[in-house]
Amino acid sequence: MAGVDQTQKPTKAVIYARVSGAKQVREGDGLASQENRCREYATYKDYDVVEVFADDMSGKFERRPAMDRMLAFLRLHPKGSVVVIIDDISRFARSVQAHIKLRETLSDAGGVLESPSIEFGEDSDSRLVEHMLASVAQHQREKNAEQTSNRMKGRMMNGYAVFCAPIGYQYKKTGSHGKLLTRDEPIASIIQEGLEGYASGRIASQAELKRFFEAQPAFPKDLPNGQIRQQKVSDMLNRVIYAGYIEHAPWGIARRKGHHEPIISLETYEAIQARKAARPVAPARKDIRDDFPLRGAITCACCDQPMTACWSKGKYRKYPYYWCQTRGCPECRKSIRAEKIDTGFEAILKSLTPSKQLLDIALAMLKDAWGQRMDQSALAKSEFKRQINTLDKQQDALLERLVETSQPKVVGALEAKIAKLEEEKLLLSDKLTQSTQPKATMGQIFELLRGFLSNPWNIYENGSPSARKTVLKTAFKAPLGYDRQNGFRTPQPSVIFEFFDKITSKCEMVRSRRLELPRVLPHSDLNAARLPIPPRPHCPELGRGGLSRVARVVKMLF
User: Fold this and answer.
1) 289-322: b (≥16 Cβ within 10 Å) or e
2) Residue 83 maps to a domain
């Protein structure tokens, strides 16, 4: 390539513009403003603008794609034949080291740097001014970052979220709080159901929670196949912001109450952390579907190990079978038709249906338990306040000891103890501020209870796989044993159905005569004594305090 006369004035120019992010491109006019100013300068200098390069990112210049394309463009032209026009030195680089390195790279590529804001030169005075302006730009960038960080930190200390809104929340402008996190429905309700289900144990593992979120059409997916990353689920379980609290350890901001509406309670969050720290459980199998709803709920009568199930291919079609897979068991690999097991299970579940009278008794107990629960809410609040006052006194005593001591180990231990007491206070305060009203009305709970107790088979037959799983957990307290020759063993029903069974099978009628010791009656009372006394039920199995035990069982259902 032929050389270019260095004394000849260049006629071609390119424009380089940069903003710090894509948000400035969407909401501002920074790139267009820089380009217009550079074009005016090029017209004044009689340059022909042949290309415009624009970046919408901050950081080191090596990571800027437009800068890389511009350097490649300059290397294709003779040295000194193309002028690079920038609006301001701060748009070129934001630190002195990056500016010097970029200037050398640009010079090696054959470009000549010019700007309407500063005159670049190769003499010592021009370089001094250039470096001073680059240093000022660096100082301005660092100062802006410090001010932004301080404002964000101060807002977090006041109980406001400042980072990107987590899944289930969105920022909305309010009159008194500015931008405040608000629930993003229906995603917030989906997250609430999933987190509360994991905390209660209804959702057994994080893998099962992931599949629960994937099954919700409204939940945002981050993979092309309609799935979400497991890391997203783990992050959601660790975020106390869902409980309505704010914390950020890198800034030294301890946990404090936030102004946004919580999705779950702090008690639920603590239960989630306790479950995560406990021994992990095996994830739910993906192949537990409508084909084999009892897989995992029935065991082999010989070895008491869970049975598995599969489809067996026949001559014309496939057939469902259950079988024991335990090595050494006499029934190992001996198939049992799924239809036979399903029919036997149907008979067992239908036999749990109580009579209408017993169901009315259960609902009457529920009404009593409901009233007692409402009465106890006021006492619970008083107890929470007393415990908070006790923790305040303990913190004050520890603070006095902290001031008096100078041993580093003692100081660290006291600070850890004070932080622990503060977490306990937050948990009690959260319980104190929670609504004492239940999530559902008494009529709704009665309806659900009556529907379940009156006909659990109906719910199992018409419900989803998750509903069937819930019925199995609620109706039986242990897996059902099955013998290939004799069928199901005697089932172990849950506590509520066990009480119903005892009341039904072991109750007897009290004799018509009174139970008191006989005594001599006056003649005038003989006719009254001969009147028959209405019989009343008597159940010795319940024993003393039996009705209260049944009431506690009924309360477990909600």
Assistant:
1) eeebbbbbbbbbbbbeeebebbeeeeeeeeebbb
2) yes
